[in-house]
Design brief:
The complex is a heterodimer of chains A (about 575) and B (about 160). Chain A is of the alpha/beta class and about 575 residues long. In chain A, the strands form five sheets. Chain A has a six-stranded parallel beta sheet with strand order 3-2-4-5-7-6, with helices on both faces. In chain A, strands 11-10-9-12-13-14 form a six-stranded parallel beta sheet, sandwiched between helices. In chain A, strands 16-15-17-18-20-19 form a six-stranded parallel beta sheet, with helices on both faces. Chain A is globular and about 75 Å long. Chain B is built from four helices and nine strands. In chain B, the strands form two sheets. In chain B, strands 5, 6, 7, 8 and 9 form a five-stranded antiparallel beta sheet that branches. A four-stranded antiparallel beta sheet of chain B has the order 2-3-1-4, covered by helices on one side. Classes of the chains: A alpha/beta (about 575), B alpha+beta (about 160). At the A-B interface, strand 6 of A face helix 1 and helix 2 of B.
């Protein structure tokens, strides 16, 4: 049998897992591994400028491709810097394998140089973790890590590796396992047929149905199944922030995003629904508003691969645990059979009335009504930037985002027609995600348009990655919605703190972004007038092989609407604009 | 409502901290905790008593099941079961009270496992309420030290928790 060192085993296993990129940063505890990668590994390594960026880049690579992201960091600060990115992936159920270095086994517990208890520090934000105790275990552990990360409800898995387990001179037999069997881990493969039938009947009896789908549909590769089901029944569909693109955003049956900054028509439809089909969504507090007032008249069918998501915050009337893809397939079969027996289902008259009601909501305060935002024709409104971006990219770009107002505007106004195109930190809400995420996506799809929608606050949290863009030639476009404030913080201060803008402005301290990006070898543009916006956007995307930073000055007073009334509001309680709210 | 959740888990380093961490991370409370290896050295059995309404208990059992190290679990309080807690109590035992303490210990079917000129150490096993009652029966100020194992339990009848 082939004899390899621990470092060589890692390099080989990464190849055998068909990993495309390793995102990482070297340091003392992982030098044996890096040397093994350098000497003999076909998988390219991307050197970031901060370990947080390595995790975000790998995470976004996973979101865009559906394949696991791989990260390699050193012990101590390398590991702790990675934690924010691991938590980001965990909250959004993103498959990732993180190799972290550790001090030598005999030094563990002695507060050695660059020692930190990585298993302890990452425990609440990983799906699982391993520490290598014997080098011979490495192939088995790595195989298990990839298996756990990518199956069931996906998530990040940490492998902590003491330096002495990777010594080049100590070689052990290497055989990479073909398969994994674990007595304590076997994700469910199929939904319960009886429950699915019950759900199908409930759906066919619905008079005011809504399909509410989340990130699980994208992770579970069930966009087609979801679309078929919705089309078969002609039911309205709303997506969560994480689910955008799972159902075509430009389709007529699409109500837009729901939740705190969801579309008026989506939130109204949810509140008044009699049957809600929740698919791969988890009734997050940013969706439900006050749980006790959530959708009072609705029977809820909830499909999720993770039993803990079901009836966690909102009780499910028909719970179905299973992979969304096969459950939706089985459900469609059931529905077709039931309709064969009784072609009058679902009640066409009721559905017609329901659509009429929904269209009234759309006409009243829908996102595409003319007065959703007011432009003076001169100053640039943030919504117009996203509309311009949509036009310039033909609606077909990969859009990463940071966190804040710009994120909500992008989610609302960029109509995602395909899954995996909208890449954002929905659960953890991690500022600094957008730029490294864009790098990860661009490496996966070098020929696609990749844009990072950001603000001056978020971009400065990982702006050092402009240097990584230079080194690896990842020509992403950075769309900076500049309002000189931490916009979302300011919005809450305007609405709930009588306009006291506590520490939410940079005063005059912002850098000249154009000069800054030029220093890194990129192209900078400043856009201040509406008349220049579309032209500049076109020009930026025409520069195929350059990173372009568009510093776009927007109206700093604009808020994101609709916005749920909180606390104690229900789904239908929304601010429509600064002065008007639903009653 | 009080529940006794008994868990079979991989006897791996870090497994216990995952279980305990889950409780603190999600705001569940632990009243007692007991963990030891089983007849199969690759498996540990962990028993935890906790309180919560049905919804919380459902979440706790689902979240525990989701941990990769957890192989199987049972909520013993859902059916007939035997539960035991072991307690060692060191009490002040001087002069006339020595007989009194001996009598109370007998009534509770405890054993005096260590005797000194001024102290007794008493061992008592039983359900948690019995142990509580014994402590209440001792004179105030008599108790010098108490240590309890935490609840362990097993289902009555044929029902078993194994692979």
């Amino acid at each position: 049998m082939e004899m390899l060192s621990g470092g060589e085993m890692i390099a080989r296993a990464i190849e055998l897992e068909n990993v495309e990129y390793i995102f990482g940063y070297p340091g003392g505890a992982v030098l044996h591994i890096y040397d093994a990668l350098f000497k003999n590994c076909k998988v390219p390594h991307v050197l970031v400028r901060h370990e947080q960026a390595a995790t975000h880049a790998a995470d976004a690579y996973a979101r865009a491709t559906g394949k696991p992201g791989v990260v390699l960091v050193t012990s101590g600060p390398g590991a702790t810097n990675a934690v924010t990115g691991i938590a980001t992936a965990y909250m959004d159920s993103i498959p990732m394998v993180i190799f972290s270095g550790q001090v030598q086994s005999h030094l563990i517990g002695e507060d050695a140089f660059q020692e930190t208890d990585m298993l302890g520090i990452s425990r609440p934000v990983v799906k699982h973790s391993f520490q290598v105790r014997h080098t011979e275990e490495l192939p088995g552990i790595i195989k298990k890590a990839f298996h756990i990360a990518t199956t069931g409800r996906p998530g990040p898995v940490v492998i902590d590796i003491p330096k002495d387990k990777t010594k080049p001179e100590e070689k052990f037999p290497f055989k990479y396992p073909d398969s994994v069997s674990m007595r304590s881990y076997s994700p469910i493969q199929r939904g319960h047929a009886g429950q699915i039938k019950k759900a199908a009947k409930l759906l066919l009896g619905a008079k005011r149905p809504v399909i509410y789908s989340g990130g699980g549909v994208i992770l579970g590769g069930a966009s087609d199944q979801l679309t078929h089901l919705a089309k078969e029944l002609r039911f309205p569909v709303t997506n969560t922030l994480m689910g955008l693109g799972a159902y075509p955003g430009s389709d007529d049956q699409f109500l837009g995003m729901l939740g705190m900054h969801g579309f008026y028509e989506a939130n109204m439809a949810m509140h008044h629904a009699d049957v809600i089909l929740a698919v791969g969504a988890r009734f997050d507090d940013r969706v439900t508003n006050t749980v006790s007032k959530f959708c009072p008249g609705a029977k809820i069918i909830h499909i999720d691969i993770d039993p803990t998501s079901i009836s966690k915050t909102v009780n499910a009337d028909v719970p179905i645990v299973g992979p969304v893809q096969t459950v939706l397939e089985d459900m469609l079969v059931q529905i077709k059979q039931l309709r064969k027996k009784d072609a009058s289902l679902p009640d066409a008259g009721a559905l017609e009335r329901w659509w009429r009601q929904i269209n009234e909501w759309r006409d009243k305060h829908g996102l595409w009504t003319a007065d959703r935002f007011v432009s003076d024709g001169e100053h640039i409104m943030p919504q117009q930037v996203i509309q311009s971006l949509y036009k310039a990219t033909g609606g077909d770009a990969y859009i990463t985002s940071d966190v804040g107002q710009h994120q909500m505007f992008a989610a609302q106004y960029y109509k995602f027609d395909k899954p995996h195109r909208w890449i954002n930190s929905g659960g953890l809400g991690t500022m600094g995600f957008g730029l490294p995420a864009a790098i990860g996506v661009k490496l996966a799809f070098p020929d696609a348009d990749v844009a990072c929608v950001t603000g001056e606050g978020s971009i400065q949290m990982n702006i050092q990655e402009l240097s990584t863009c230079t080194q690896y030639n990842t020509p992403v476009k950075i769309i900076n919605l500049r309002n000189n404030y931490l916009g979302m913080v300011k919005q809450w201060q305007d609405m709930q703190y009588e306009g006291r803008h506590a520490m939410s402005t940079y005063e005059d301290s912002l850098p000249d972004f154009v000069k800054l990006v030029e220093a890194y070898g990129h192209v900078g543009m400043q856009v201040k007038n509406l008349a220049d916006l579309d032209g500049a956007m076109k020009e930026a995307f025409a520069l195929k092989d350059r990173v372009v930073f568009m510093d776009i000055f927007i109206d700093p007073t604009e808020h994101v609407y609709p916005m749920h009334v909180a606390p104690n509001g229900s789904m239908k309680d929304m601010w429509i604009n600064k002065h008007e709210r639903t009653s | 409502m009080r529940r006794i959740i008994s868990i079979l888990m991989e006897n791996e380093p870090g497994a216990l901290s995952r279980v305990v961490g889950l409780f603190s991370q999600r705001g569940y409370n632990i009243d007692t905790l007991n963990v030891a290896a089983t007849e199969d050295p690759t498996l540990s059995r962990l028993t935890v008593t906790t309180k919560g309404d049905d919804r919380v208990i459902e979440q706790i059992t689902k979240q525990l099941n989701k941990l990769v190290d957890v192989v199987k679990l049972v909520d013993l309080s859902e059916g007939a079961h035997v539960e035991r807690d072991l307690m060692l109590v060191k009490v002040r035992a001087e002069g006339e009270v020595r007989d009194e303490i001996r009598r109370v210990t007998e009534i509770f079917r405890g054993q005096i496992v260590d005797v000194g000129p001024q102290v007794f150490t008493i061992q008592l096993t039983g359900a948690a309420e019995k142990l509580d009652a014994f402590i209440a029966a001792l004179e105030e100020g008599a108790i010098l030290e108490v240590v309890r194992s935490g609840v362990v339990g097993i289902s009555r009848g044929d029902k078993v928790l194994r692979l």
